[in-house]
Design a protein that fits this description.
Pfam families: FxsA. Helices cover about 85% and strands about 0% of the residues. It is mainly α. The protein has one domain.
Length: about 130
């Protein structure tokens, strides 16, 4: 898994440059620059709005003495979306915008938690608790 992530981080800049050059030849450099700036601004605005919603949910869950699981998961995925939206390029923006869609975030979180749960049930993962 770490190897795939490493390879993706190496390949991603080349993929972004390729896509930007292809888009520039089709639409023109000015439009590509404008679209890149627009996606960053729009993504930032949506991120701010959803971040404030997650914070308000966290606050209300804490006040009602409930576990703020959904708000924390949303916050984590929004933090993951930030570098994708800030990095110039259409591929990273697509990943960032996907993480801004609530049902996509929840589907990824469910898949991740199911994978961890299965790993724990098979005995591949151990959880250790310690007192400090």
């Amino acid at each position: 898994m770490i190897l795939y992530l490493f390879l993706l981080l190496i390949a991603l800049p080349f993929i972004e440059i390729y896509v930007l050059i292809k888009a520039g030849t089709v639409f023109g450099a000015g439009w590509v620059i404008l679209a890149t700036i627009a996606t960053a601004v729009i993504g930032g605005a949506i991120l701010r709005w959803q971040g404030l919603q997650a914070l308000n949910r966290l606050r209300s869950d804490m006040q009602s003495k409930q576990a703020p699981v959904e708000a924390v998961v949303d916050g984590v995925f929004l933090l993951i979306a930030v570098p994708f939206l800030v990095t110039p390029g259409f591929v990273t923006d697509a990943f960032g915008f996907l993480l801004l869609v609530p049902f996509v975030r929840h589907a990824i979180a469910r898949a991740f938690l199911n994978k961890i749960k299965g790993s724990i049930e098979r005995g591949e993962t151990r959880i250790m608790f310690r007192k400090f």
